[in-house]
Amino acid sequence: MGTVQIKRLLTAYTPSVLLVLVLLAGWEAGVRYGRVPAFILPAPSAVWNAVIAQRELLFGLHLPATLEEILLGFALSVSCGTLLGTGMHLLPALAKAVYPLLIVSQTIPLIALSPVFIMWFGYTLGGKVAVVFLTAFFPVVVGTYDGLFKSGGQYRELLLTLGASRWQLLLKTQIPLALPAYFSGLKLSVVYCVIGATIGEWLGGSRGLGYYSRRMAGNLHSAELFAAVGLLSVLGILLFLCVSAAEIIILKKRGLRR
Amino acid sequence: MLSVSNLSYSYTADQPPVFTELSMKIRRGEFISVAGASGCGKSTLFKIIAGLLEPSGGIVSLAGEPSPKAASRLGRVGYMPQQDLLLPWRTVEGNCLLPWELKQSGTKADAVQQIRSLLHSLGLSGTEAAYPHELSGGMRQRAALARTLSSGSELLLLDEPFGALDALTKRGLQQWLLELWSGLERTVLFITHDLEEALLLSDRIYMMHSGGGLEELAVRLPRPRSGEMIYQPQFIALRMELERRLHGNCAN
Lengths: 258, 252
Hints:
The complex is a heterodimer of chains A (258) and B (252). Chain A contains ten helices and no strands.
């Protein structure tokens, strides 16, 4: 079984891994022999060296700071988004009132609004978490609301004839049926959290990968900038994979995925 | 047990009604079939009786008391829709436990024991822990029937429960349903397209005409009935009569 799985993974990911390797090699060669100045485009090897050289600062100070903002913002987004989505499902009037506002809230250019957030919540953790929340809660609300909205009209009738209350309907059929859409929302949200945290740190503060990358950009330390950006991207991928793993485990347990 | 008088229903006010002036009376312990062409409103009638739809006019009375609101009948009638509607993330036993979970009457151990014996008599022993997607169509339908029965309602509305089954399985289940019905004092209202099935199972058959109106046919065949009965001259005569009356309708 193990070898079959490895084979499957190899056939699934070999093309993309090969492409990445070719691109990296091309990039390295282009920078080395094409005489591109290092502050315009650092070679991948230089970026890697920067990661190693700055590892204490990156992994000891800035990465934990960013991760803290992301996790707090994500937790807040998930709890508020789930509550609001469920509330909108249970109270159609609330949905009619709130849905347009939600969409408007997503059309506001976040970067333009963020300075106000910093003014309200300060340069501390609170301001950053607020920016993360504003970027990341929308997919959770929509995932919850749409998932519940689309789940099972016929099941609803059957449970009603069995004497189910509204709360029982939600608990026994609608929530389980809404889980796939809900997890799609969570996966989008966690990726947005990384973006939100970076924007929050760009605006000010003294810690975090966003703050670090901005400071390095100001000093033309491109290799360090790329190192921070690379770390942020890896962080986003890992968080996404965590949510995916939770999804697979829960949906399998509920028989919604085989 | 159940009486329906002058019932009418239309989806919206400006559409022609699905049916009008529908009346029927069902006594406790009777087995009644409703037959009629597709689209004449049989399932709609069932949904109204179950309490899912509010009729445009007329009165439905359960156990002698008229219920002014359709919703007041919810939970008092066992309703089995055409699709099995088993919850895919629950085992067969978990699905059958659903009515108990919603009502919470009695202990869980009792409910489980009752469900096990029900599954046994439906030939579903050993599938308690199976998920619906692991079962054949016939087994799913039987599991759905077990769930309807485990709701404990006295009046059962079965909307073509055996419609998707092969002839052999169908025969076995009809026999089983007859035995259960005679042993348990349940009242059954049964939708079917299969006239043979209707005659074999029922005390009376209501033929439903599209646009409204019910015609009644009493099935005066001795009980207990068995599958061989369908070859007796008395049965064949009734069947011809039923077919003639239904076809007469379509011609109009």
